[in-house]
Amino acid sequence: MLAIEAGMTMEEINKCSLAASNAWADECMAKAIAPSKANVQAVAIRGSGPADKITVKTSPSDALPVVKTRPEFEKVWNTYGSSAGSGSCSIPIYNKHRRIELARLEKMDKDHAALEEATEFQAKREAAIAADEAATEKKRAKRQKRKDAKAKSQQLKKEADGINKFGSDGSFLDMMAKMDPKVLEDEARKAKEAAAIAAKEAAAAKASHGRLVIQSLCQWVRRISGAPEPARGAASCACD
Prior knowledge:
This protein folds into 2 domains: about 1-45 and about 70-80 and about 85-155, no CATH class; about 180-240. It is built from 6 helices and 2 strands. It has helices at about 1-5, 10-20, 25-35, 90-160, 170-180, 180-225; strands at about 40-45, 55. It is elongated.
């Protein structure tokens, strides 16, 4: 066949045969008027992670194969415009091809608009999913913090049970009156020693922190002024 030798497929030949009437143009216009099925292929799912997307098929799962009842004939199709002249009979053919092209362009515009709308919708979904996951993670961290604080409080309470010898029933003064004065003196001396040790440690920590601040300030001044670094073992700055 001439058409097959020209590189045309059988589907193209049938379309060209159908184009001999306005049926093919009507079919193109019907497809253009129908809502577009263009959609994104990768969709984010809640709980699957921000980087994990699942590919979703947009075609219906219960779609049945299209059965064509139109007979197909092998024929030689002469391309429109291959004749030497053009008369008034070419006007309907031109109008038919124009309708087909307009339908194709309209369908392209609809597909593009539908794809942009679907992409924008999925972007909003992903933003909402990210916000929900962030809020959930924040609440989870808050609950875990409360659990840790409760466990620490219980642990401190267990440790304090053996240290605190006084109950919380208001019998503090009575128990103090019944205690031996030497025991009270020992307890007061131990408390004073513990307070002195704590104050000494706090003063040492404060002095160490101040020393680090001064050293950092001296290093910054040397770096700005371009002064050389002190020798190993020497004082880092005059402030030392």
